[in-house]
Write a structure and sequence with these properties.
By secondary structure, this protein is α+β, with helices and mostly antiparallel strands. Helix content is about 35%, strand content about 30%. The chain has four domains: about 5-60, Beta-grasp domain (Ubiquitin-like (UB roll), Roll); about 65-250, Threonyl-tRNA Synthetase, Chain A, domain 2; about 265-545, Bira Bifunctional Protein, Domain 2 (BirA Bifunctional Protein, domain 2, 2-Layer Sandwich), CATH 3.30.930; about 560-650, Rossmann fold, CATH 3.40.50.800. Helix 2 (about 65-85) packs across helix 3, helix 8 crosses helix 16 (about 535-545) and helix 13 (about 410-430) packs across helix 14 (about 450-465). It binds one RNA strand through strand 12, strand 13, helix 8, helix 18 and strand 31.
RNA sequence: GCCAGCGUGGCGCAAUUGGUAGCGCACCCGACUUGUAAUCGGGCGGUUAGGGGUUCAAGUCCCCUCGCUGGCUCCA
């Protein structure tokens, strides 16, 4: 009685099934409520898709990656319907799923107000309750044009698709590759709404278990500054109320550990309005952490053969003309200071030209190479006003910047050892999970293609040797060089771009630097740029969020707070503190007239790694009692043992 | 740079339709001296980011500047 055979694929297992002609994917998976779409011969399809003989069919569950994307895309449609009902003049842009959610762009006469989101959510809930069916319909270009005559942006997409040019990011969900389709939202048999869309979609709106609109924003149509700005609404949707809740809690956790908030709470740094946007001052507690980070980094660099240099923050314009910065990135530089007789000085946006000056200060021999120059170099970049963001995107910041001058022969080994060094040092700061991007030649570049190819190959080889997983970012290199960016994953799973490593054969030529080789000829060195933290400010901000302010003891600004049970125990704790200070431990005795419980609370909120308490019992035994950040305690520890425990944790740079 | 939302004592927040700026924490003073997350009492502190305007009257309305937030664009 079965008229055709399909192959059902589930998590790698394959099974053949005989079904009647015209069976849909949905009927195949009837009974499994988690299945909301299917992959038929490799293509994602609606459950209403009619199968053909010999099809290979895989169920798509709503809680899979593909399933969530479909859910979110369908939720975007519900949003768009709600918007057009509440704001009839709204014209549709695009509405794709994105990581953790979706958005939909609209052209509206008056921008949305945050309060509009609540009204839209209410309407969306009604639409979901109505159990509208998502119904797919194939149309010709002309039919689509006729049906969407009132939607200028959709018409533009149809036009783009006809021209087979690359549409905007996200637009592929509207028009896709082949035939055009429109999805009708049907309330019973009545058409509630429709949208040009490739699909697939959930069977009905009722299949949306949980969603929330997040924020309104503006976005340029098709991602170009030259185009008009549309109003974008961001939302999120999940396979269950619990999954939505977990996501919202993750966002709340990210907010709690936002470095800008912790910077204030822990008194680490601030951005005085009087100084200017994006320009931080470091308070004593933040300053200690930064100093410890720098000291450790400096020591490791010295051990690895780097030499320390210092250079000024300002330079005459000629330097940046030679380097090419004024030709390529003058926009990103602070405007020049005009001095007498027409001399112009610029704040430096990068340290490299300065380091080249050091190299060029005298003749160089191949025997000196590789020459590794390192500086904590403070640079200033005129970031656009809308992008400044705490410590992670500042206008003044300090790079842990090094430039390595080497012979072409040395390039490969130098890159390889460099990568190992970088990753090793990042591990010491408590970061574990690394990936890399290899950014290759961009459209706008300088130099010879052969040189680019050589450098790209050397970078890739070093990634392989260092065994770091990487992806190739085609065309993402700097104009003067290909680069490797190292990304790290933080404690709550976010990825941050940190270190960069670039091969540069432009600057050596521009500055005409040379070395004398063994055969007596003059040769041009290669140059490698690298920053490990990227910027100290940014790295600090990332670490702060990674640790949620609870730094490991070696970095904590105050490592120990000693808390007397009563005033008469203060002198004893001062002796303990003196012993700790002898070991270089940063310790404070809390002699305020707060109650002991309050002192504990204070130390706890300041995320102090160790609290040492002492009362009559401890003093009798020559001991102290520990309270750790976890709330755990360890009582009656002999003072020398306590000191040793703390000093050891600091020396080993472990987290506790 | 563009769009939107914001900007109240150090921090977190309040202030009916425009009608004399309050609270908590922190801070200062006093009392209390207490074994693991907030003792009690008193006090100081704001020309409501800055400037201009409307009004009898503006933290509340309008304009400009600065700054912050979320996006977009950008990130050498």
């Amino acid at each position: 009685m079965s008229e055709m055979i399909v192959t059902v694929v589930r998590t790698g297992e394959r099974a053949e099934r005989g079904v009647t002609t015209g069976t849909t994917a949905g009927e195949l998976f009837q009974g499994d409520r988690a299945v909301i779409a299917a992959r038929v011969n490799g293509e994602l399809r609606d459950l209403a898709w009619a199968l053909s003989d010999a099809d290979e069919v895989e169920p798509i569950a709503i809680d899979s990656e593909d399933g969530r994307a479909i859910l979110r895309h369908s939720t975007a449609h519900v949003l768009a319907q709600a918007v057009q009902e509440l704001f009839p003049e709204a014209k549709l842009g695009i509405g794709p799923p994105v990581e953790n959610g979706f958005y939909y762009d609209f052209d509206v006469p008056k921008p949305f107000h945050p309060d509009d989101l609540e009204r839209l959510e209410t309407r969306m809930r009604q639409i979901i309750k109505e159990r509208q069916r998502f119904s797919r319909r194939v149309v010709t270009d002309d039919e689509a044009r006729a049906e969407l005559a009132d939607e200028p942006y959709k018409l533009e997409l149809i036009g783009l698709k006809s021209q087979a040019t690359g549409a905007a990011e996200g637009a592929s969900v509207e028009v896709g590759g082949g035939e055009l389709t429109i999805y009708d939202n049907l309330r019973g048999d009545e058409l509630a709404w429709k949208d040009l869309c490739r699909g697939p979609h959930l069977p009905t709106t009722r299949h949306i278990p949980a969603f929330k609109l997040m924020r309104v924003a503006a976005a340029y149509w098709r991602g170009s500054e030259k185009n008009p700005q549309l109003q974008r609404i961001y939302g999120t949707a999940w396979e269950s109320k619990d999954a939505l809740k977990a996501y919202l809690e993750m966002l709340a956790e990210a907010e709690r550990r936002d470095h800008r908030r912790l910077g204030v709470e822990l008194d680490l740094f601030s951005f005085p309005e009087e100084i200017g946007s994006g320009l931080a001052v470091w308070h004593p507690k933040g300053g200690i952490i930064r100093r410890v980070m720098e000291e450790y980094s400096r020591r490791r660099h010295e051990e690895a053969g780097y030499e320390f240099v210092y250079t000024p923050h300002l330079s005459k314009e000629g330097l940046f003309q030679t380097s090419g910065h004024l030709d390529w990135y003058a926009d990103g530089m602070y405007p020049p200071m005009e001095l007498d007789e027409g001399h112009r000085y610029y704040m430096k946006p990068m340290n490299c030209p300065m380091h080249v000056m050091i190299y060029r200060s005298r003749g160089r021999s191949y025997r000196e190479l590789p020459l590794r120059l390192f500086e904590f170099g403070t640079v200033y970049r005129y970031e656009k006003s809308g992008v400044v963001h705490g410590l992670t995107r500042a206008r003044g910041f300090t790079q842990d910047d090094a430039h390595i001058f080497c012979t072409p022969d040395q390039l490969q080994d130098e890159l390889s050892s460099l990568l190992g060094f970088v990753v090793g040092l990042l591990r010491d700061y408590g970061l574990e999970d690394f990936t890399a991007d290899l950014s290759t030649r961009p459209e706008k570049f300088v130099g010879e293609i052969e040189e680019w190819n050589t450098a790209e190959a050397a970078l890739e080889e070093s990634l392989k040797r260092a065994d770091i997983p990487y992806t190739i970012a085609e065309g993402e290199g700097a104009f003067y060089a290909p680069k490797i960016d190292i990304h790290v994953k933080d404690a709550i799973g976010r990825r941050w771009q940190l270190s960069t490593l670039q091969v540069d054969f432009q600057l050596p030529g521009r500055f005409d630097i040379e070395y004398q080789s063994a055969d007596g000829t003059r040769q041009r060195p290669y140059m490698i740029h690298r920053a490990l933290f990227g910027s100290e400010e940014r790295f600090f901000g990332i670490l702060l969020e990674h640790y949620a302010g609870a730094f490991p003891p070696w970095l904590a600004p105050v490592q120990v707070v000693a808390i007397p049970i009563a005033e008469r125990h203060e002198a004893y704790l001062e002796q303990v503190a003196a012993k700790l200070r002898e070991r270089g431990i940063r310790v404070e005795v809390d002699r305020s007239d707060d109650r002991m419980q309050k002192k504990i609370r204070n130390a706890q909120t300041h995320k102090i790694p160790y609290m040492l308490l002492a009362g009559d019992r401890d003093i009798e035994e020559g001991a102290v009692s520990f309270r750790y950040r976890s709330g755990e305690q360890k009582n009656g520890v002999p003072v020398d043992d306590a000191v040793a425990e703390i000093a050891d944790a600091v020396a080993r740079r472990i987290q506790i």
